[in-house]
Amino acid sequence: MRHRVGIVEDHESVVIGISAMLSDESDLELVATAPTVTELLALTTDLDLAVLDLRLADGSSPKSNVEALREVGIETLVFTGAENPFLVRSAARAGVLGVVRKSESRQTVIDAIRTAAGGGQVVTTEWAAAIDGDPGLLDVGLSPRQREVLELYASGEKAARVARLTGLAPQTVNDYLQRIRQKYAEVGRPAPTKTDLYKRALEDGWLPIPERPSER
Known about the structure:
With 216 residues, the protein is an alpha/beta fold. It has 2 domains: 133 residues, Rossmann fold; 66 residues, Winged helix-like DNA-binding domain superfamily/Winged helix DNA-binding domain (Arc Repressor Mutant, subunit A). The protein contains 10 helices and 5 strands, in the order βαβαβαβαβαααααα. A 5-stranded parallel β-sheet has the order 2-1-3-4-5, with helices on both faces. β1, α1 and β2 form a beta-alpha-beta unit. The radius of gyration is 19 Å and the shape is elongated. The C terminus is likely disordered. GO terms for molecular function: DNA binding. InterPro entries: CheY-like_superfamily, Sig_transdc_resp-reg_C-effctor, Sig_transdc_resp-reg_receiver, Tscrpt_reg_LuxR_C, WalR-like, WH-like_DNA-bd_sf.
């Protein structure tokens, strides 16, 4: 069976490298590449697997990217050089099949793509440690509306502005924020300040991770 693979990567050299790796693999066909998930899906949704970089230039979060791909039935394998555990956990939470570092050998990368394209899990020590070893992975169970308020407020908007953007009453926004803080505190992830809420939103993938060139 020949599996159809797409790449979401904004570094041309990485795309060329993966293309070369797969060129001699008769069961793996690279059919599309794009610098963002949106652009890949505009090209095709007929894929068995998307190989996704965690940090893209458009500022999108790993969680939102994986969810967008899974909505159209495309599974995801993360291929990254980043060491940021927040990014790995965010992608893992969204349901990726595995995480492979760009420093791995050619054969390891090919084997991982082949396994994931066939629907199998690609479990690495680093990925397992990032997921299982972090108590911050406890889900706070935010509703879609609470998530919307958190995203706006944690990104820098004032509560009054959040109320205008969401159509909620100012007191309702404050009630939401109080409940959000309570939920985080209940799972051992306190967020008493706006900065703390920003950190929690980053950890959970609700906001894009700021670009850190040194982690490339």
